[in-house]
Amino acid sequence: MSQSSTVEPVIGPEPARGAVAETPLRMFAAPTGRRLFRNQPQSVAGFIAAVLEPGINAAVLVGAHAYYSEEFSRASMVLLLLVLALTFPGTDHFRDRPLSSAVDIVLSWLTLLMLLVFCGYATRSLGLFEWPVIVAWALATPLIHWFVVLAGRDLLQWQARQPRAARRALIVGAGALAVKTAHALQSRADVCTEISGYFDDRSGDRIAAEAVRLRLGGLADVAAHVQRQAVSEVYITLPLGSQPRIVGLLESLQGTTASVYLVPDVFGISIIQGRLQDVNGLPVVGICETPFTGINDAVKRLSDVVLASIILVLLAPLMLLLAVGVKLSSPGPVIFKQRRNGLGGEEIVVYKYRSMRAADDGKVVRQATRGDPRITSFGAFLRKTSLDELPQFINVLQGHMSIVGPRPHAVAHNEQYAQLVKAYMVRHKVRPGITGWAQVNGHRGETDTVAKMRARVEFDLDYLRNWSLGLDLQIIARTIKLVVADRHAY
After folding, report:
1. Residue 47: which residues within 8 A CB-CB, separation 6 or more?
2. Alpha carbon 184 to chain centroid distance?
3. pLDDT tens-place values along the chain, 490 residues long
4. How many C-alpha atoms does 402 have within 13 Å on its Cβ side?
5. Angle between the N-to-C axes of helices 44-67 and 74-86, in degrees from 0 to 180, rounded to the nearest 10
6. Taking the model in full, what pTM does it have?
7. What is the number of alpha carbons within 13 Å of residue 167 lying toward its C-beta?
8. Radius of gyration for the chain, computed over Cα atoms and rounded to the nearest angstrom
9. CA dihedral for 159, 161, 164, 165, sign (positive or negative)
């Protein structure tokens, strides 16, 4: 096939004079009115995971009624429908570590139970159920779910070890990204991939040491090798500046049956919720995006409102006592208000119980330090137990904050660290939180060095990459433990 930038059409008339010629990349495009890219096809394991959790939840409920010989009443039918409606799309736990999947399953189940109890309390229907049945259902469901996940993991691993399941792949490019791609393919537990070798026109120190021995030729040799060795997958890891070579390679591979994948070199930047999207037929690669889009935003906001409302109602007497303690401890207002940056960098006002004699909120804000003379005796107790943060649940109901998220900093500190810490402002793609992933991993309190702030920001970005409702509940649980047992708080 010709290596020129134009290609003769296989069927149909010649293009009119002045028309734009077809390029090899254009030949991969879909006809007008159809999507160029589609969402990633769901694997069998992913499909099973999507129906597994609601199916198990419902089946165990029916089984618990049968075990206790209880009639499946109209109230139980309503409960069954609620379970199916409130169970969020299942996560594919088959590739997770056993302990990680167990924690995620339990936290997701507890979240669902809390929602069901809230619905039952609001409708005064809790008394309509037989509690032995409900307790057995609540205890057995996560255990059965976990055992099914373990069995599924073993089945996937057994299937991957079968000779007929092995896939032969080659990698175009022989740099660091190519080696990283090979490691990723070979470390998959559910698919057995045999790397045939590397193909690259470059030589010398531009070739990764690990790829030198398996370098089988240049780009001109790829198509022939694919056909001769029955290679089923080709991964292109060339630098993005190699577009003409990539175009020629794609053209040569049209005569084979191999699947072709492009691995973009984006490891030098911080990827947040990276995904491929279709914008009215235009392929768009998301590099940095908030995790709270679509249903995730509704789930996050609903959980914030429900939990914040429950906490404020339950802790109202304690909050009143703390307000009295602040008022009696020193002159000044009970609530300290400070300007901080919230979602999208917008300026918000955050509430705290006043723990100091001074209240800095200007262009220069001095951070509290251990043994700070500005802290009152009662304020020291509030800060050590984090009870000074309780008024921020009002910020949550206002929509300015979330229960879990990156901690907000004073506006003066934000302006300072935005210039010193890479990707600092990315943490503002979500609402700031009362507690966060950084805080439960030892990064709470004073950030008196850039290194400390850089470490905190890295945990905040990790939270954005890996957010789930289960992770939020895990952070809340670890925060409660810290409030009770953290000896380093001040």
Report:
1. none
2. 19
3. 333 333 333 333 344 433 333 443 433 444 444 444 444 444 444 555 566 778 888 899 999 999 988 888 888 898 888 888 777 555 555 555 666 677 777 877 887 888 888 888 888 888 888 889 999 999 999 898 888 878 777 776 666 566 555 788 999 999 999 999 998 888 776 677 889 899 999 888 888 999 988 999 999 999 999 989 889 899 999 887 777 888 888 888 887 888 888 888 776 666 777 777 777 777 777 777 888 887 888 889 998 999 999 999 999 999 999 999 999 988 889 999 988 999 988 999 999 999 887 655 555 455 655 666 778 888 888 888 889 999 999 999 999 999 999 999 888 888 888 888 888 888 888 999 999 999 998 887 667 788 888 899 999 999 998 888 878 888 888 888 777 666 555 4
4. 27
5. 160
6. 0.61
7. 18
8. 29
9. positive
In this structure, are residues 457 and 424 in contact, taking their beta carbons and an 8 Å threshold? yes
User: φ, ψ for residue 194 (rounded to 5)?
Assistant: -105, 120
Residue of 398, 389, 399 lying closest to 319 (CA atoms): 389
Task: Determine whether 122 is exposed, middle or buried from the number of CB atoms within 10 Å of its CB (0-12, 13-18, 19+).
Answer: exposed
Of 146, 316, 191, 168, the C-alpha closest to 256 is 168
